[in-house]
């Protein structure tokens, strides 16, 4: 009798899933319909039929080993075939300017499974890699990743620009033209991604459309035109600013090449690019924030209602207009000062790697809010001067409400009525309150009249009508301060409640992506062009991953997952201060985002492959809706 253990059943289930997955593949491009060009937001062939890039990044040739990863354990041609079997139709092949121009000798141990590649240099092995991929019918997108060979990318590195002190722009252009010349007779080398993740570096800010040495748009056009002079059939891939995150400057200054319909924009996204999701994945749970904020908001609403009920019971008294204006102006200026502080903090933060966003979005808002804060402060000070200083009767014609208690002559009818009424104790000298009247003058009770607020809000006089405005103002001012403080807290809690609900949702991700780069997919604009998600990756199937897939699916976006590799070459790490700390010896480390395992053959996460393959159709037939797991806090690993 045939029996099957639980472990056997699991292995057979995985094999079944992989066999189903293998049947779902992106369509290989028809060589007879090449070259490619762009039409609106799509990449198309010579018959104007959509060609969707469903790519994988194959890393390694930009690092010190100067060779793609995996050749130490797998035959090159078999590994290229494995990429095709997994369903991809193209590969983003990254290299460094240094490796290209210096053409270093590759260590034999890094190509141990390929005896014919031992003792060879970078360019020979790189050409063999391209040949192996295109022999499988896979499109190749060349990518000039960095200048100096090594790991990329950190905000403190000098690799944010397309040039460095060691490798000025002429070397970059030389490399682009040299690679183009090398592969111009291979029709499946369909595009050139001219630079990876441009961004500001310490002491140097990148611009767009300024036509100077820091202008990425001008540099991209120079590079693209130089490539097209050699091979006009290539597509030119231009990365967005700010680590490939922001395309907004193209609205005003779109890229223009010497050959039309050759432009593809590129964007990247990782969880660290989404601050709200990153926070919930590493520090706290938005669900807990939402729950706690709801309780706080409920308490604040009850206190607000209690204040309003007390005010209603007191006969709905109002302070003088000048007092109210001073109070509202003060709170509004404080609120605007807080918002201005947030904007200036954002400006400071973004100037470290994305001065375009800092200068065009955070700085203008910070200045506007600061100006508004100053104006409100001046308005409040003016109102306070009118409402709280000693006033003469000559001012009554200008601001009559401040003169309600001015006594003409030696007697004051209102005071006499007060003294003869049931409320004669209004004239009692409470601490800080002046009872006497000076003919022709009005004097405020002073800031120490807390007893008025206590007596008429909570004390024995709470059932009596409020006193005359001059005596009441300070007590009413205190009451209004409490009410407005609670109101501001209620407003802030409401904002936090809404944001904590939306922070990990697809709606928020879609809003951010559409704002920063998704707009370029809209047809009919001067800036309309294909947008390629050139890098994204994750090791857990949580909210970041599923929101990302849903956006790529709904917008039917070309993509390239990062990376294929099961291992990555590491020379050290960047410390919290931004400095690079070298290991005693370089070493190979596990690549947690890798599609394959360390044997460069087995699939690391079955769910990941299945999700990626679902994106390969055009239009996409499956979109994630019901999320099986939301990674909400540190330690709650989602995935299989």
UniProtKB/TrEMBL annotation:
The chain crosses the membrane at residues 294-312, 324-350, 362-385, 477-499. Belongs to the glycosyl hydrolase 5 (cellulase A) family. Residues 79-275 form the Glycoside hydrolase family domain. This is Glycoside hydrolase family 5 domain-containing protein. Residues 1-23 form the signal peptide. InterPro entries: GH, Glyco_hydro_5. The keyword Transmembrane applies. One of its GO terms (molecular function) is hydrolase activity, hydrolyzing O-glycosyl compounds. Gene3D superfamilies: Glycosidases. The keyword Signal applies.
């Amino acid at each position: 009798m045939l029996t099957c253990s639980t472990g056997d059943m699991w292995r057979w289930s995985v094999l079944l899933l992989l066999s189903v997955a293998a049947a779902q593949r992106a369509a290989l491009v028809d060589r007879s319909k090449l070259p490619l060009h762009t039409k609106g937001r799509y990449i198309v062939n010579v018959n104007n039929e959509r060609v969707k890039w469903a790519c994988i990044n194959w890393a390694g040739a930009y690092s010190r080993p100067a060779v793609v990863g995996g050749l130490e354990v797998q035959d090159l041609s078999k590994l290229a075939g494995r990429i095709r079997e997994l369903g991809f139709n193209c590969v983003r092949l990254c290299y460094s300017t240094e490796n290209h121009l210096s053409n270093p000798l590759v260590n034999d141990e890094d190509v141990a499974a390929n005896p014919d590649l031992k003792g060879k240099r970078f360019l020979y092995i790189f050409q063999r890699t391209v040949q192996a991929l295109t022999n499988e019918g896979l499109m190749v997108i060349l990518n000039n990743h960095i200048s100096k060979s090594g790991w990329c990318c950190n905000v403190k590195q000098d690799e944010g620009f397309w040039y460095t002190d060691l490798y000025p722009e002429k070397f970059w252009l030389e490399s682009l033209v040299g690679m183009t010349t090398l592969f111009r007779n291979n029709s499946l080398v369909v595009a050139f991604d001219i630079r990876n993740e441009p961004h500001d570096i310490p002491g140097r800010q990148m611009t767009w459309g300024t036509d100077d040495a820091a202008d990425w748009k001008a540099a991209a056009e120079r590079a693209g035109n130089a490539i097209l002079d050699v091979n006009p059939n290539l597509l030119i891939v231009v990365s967005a600013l700010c680590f490939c995150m922001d395309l907004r400057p193209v609205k005003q200054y779109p890229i223009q090449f010497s050959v039309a319909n050759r432009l593809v924009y590129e964007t990247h996204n990782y969880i660290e690019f989404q601050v709200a999701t990153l926070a919930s994945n590493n520090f706290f749970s938005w669900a807990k924030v939402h729950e706690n904020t709801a309780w706080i908001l409920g308490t604040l609403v009850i206190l607000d209602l209690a204040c309003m009920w007390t005010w209603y019971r007191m006969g709905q008294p109002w302070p003088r207009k000048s007092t109210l204006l001073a109070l509202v102006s003060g709170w509004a200026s404080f609120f605007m000062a807080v918002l201005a502080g947030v904007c200036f903090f954002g400006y400071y933060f973004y100037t470290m790697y994305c001065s375009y966003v800092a200068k065009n979005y955070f700085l203008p808002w910070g200045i506007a809010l600061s100006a508004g804060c100053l104006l409100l402060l001046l308005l409040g000070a003016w109102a306070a001067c009118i409402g709280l200083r000693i006033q003469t009767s000559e001012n009554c014609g200008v601001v009559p409400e401040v003169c309600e208690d001015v006594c003409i002559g030696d007697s004051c009818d209102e005071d006499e009525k007060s003294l003869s009424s049931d409320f004669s104790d209004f004239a009692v000298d409470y601490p800080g309150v002046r009872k006497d009247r000076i003919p022709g003058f009005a004097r405020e009770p002073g800031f120490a009249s807390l007893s008025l607020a206590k007596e008429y809000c909570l004390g024995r006089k709470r059932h009596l009508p409020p006193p005359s405005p001059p005596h009441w103002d300070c007590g009413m001012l205190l009451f209004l301060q409490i009410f407005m403080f609670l109101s501001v807290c209620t407003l802030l809690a409401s904002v936090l409640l809404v944001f904590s609900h939306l922070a990990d949702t697809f709606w928020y991700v879609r809003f951010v992506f559409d704002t920063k780069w998704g707009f370029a997919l809209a047809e009919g604009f001067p800036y309309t062009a294909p947008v390629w998600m050139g890098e994204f990756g994750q090791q857990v199937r949580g909210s970041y991953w599923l929101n990302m897939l849903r956006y790529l699916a709904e917008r039917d976006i070309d993509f390239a997952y990062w990376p294929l590799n099961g291992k990555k070459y590491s020379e050290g790490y960047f410390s919290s201060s931004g400095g690079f700390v070298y290991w005693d010896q370089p070493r190979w480390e596990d690549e947690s985002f890798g599609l394959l395992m360390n044997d460069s053959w087995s699939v690391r996460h079955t769910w990941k492959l299945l999700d990626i393959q679902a994106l390969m159709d055009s239009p996409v037939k499956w979109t994630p809706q019901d999320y099986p797991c939301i990674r909400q806090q540190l330690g709650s690993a989602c995935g299989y």
